[in-house]
């Protein structure tokens, strides 16, 4: 009987620790979501401000490529569709091939 009581107390402590851990994870997830939302808002604003010259420079320096654009588009679409569309127009002037590849990868961007 005593062994059962000890196991019951140990199990309840473990359950409390697991619940506290889950609450911490949920809170962390919530904060990460807020951070992601803020970053997406900032990125969408930056994409709208990019000029053809800025885009060409980013391509030349290797900061803009299909992988980075795809990653950005995955996080921005569909909420920031207008910003992505605006950037894609500028990108089309700078690198038609890259713009076409991104349109193929994200069919919702095709006009």
Describe the structure.
84% of the residues lie in helices and 0% in strands. The chain has five helices and no strands. Helix 1 packs across helix 4 (81-94). The model has no long low-confidence stretch (mean pLDDT 86).
Rounded radius of gyration (Å)? 23 Å
Mean pLDDT across every amino acid position: 86
Extended strand count: 0
Number of domains: 1
Treating each run of at least 4 consecutive H or I residues as one helix, how many helices?
A: 5
Major sheet characteristics: none
The share of residues in extended strands comes to under 5%
Global morphology: elongated
SS-based class? mainly alpha
**Helical proportion, percent range:** over 70%
Order of helices and strands: HHHHH
Distance between the termini: 73 Å
Uncertain stretches of 5 or more adjacent residues:
none
Organism: Opisthocomus hoazin (Hoatzin)
Biased composition (Basic and acidic residues): 1-21
Region (Disordered): 1-22
Protein name: Protein SAAL1
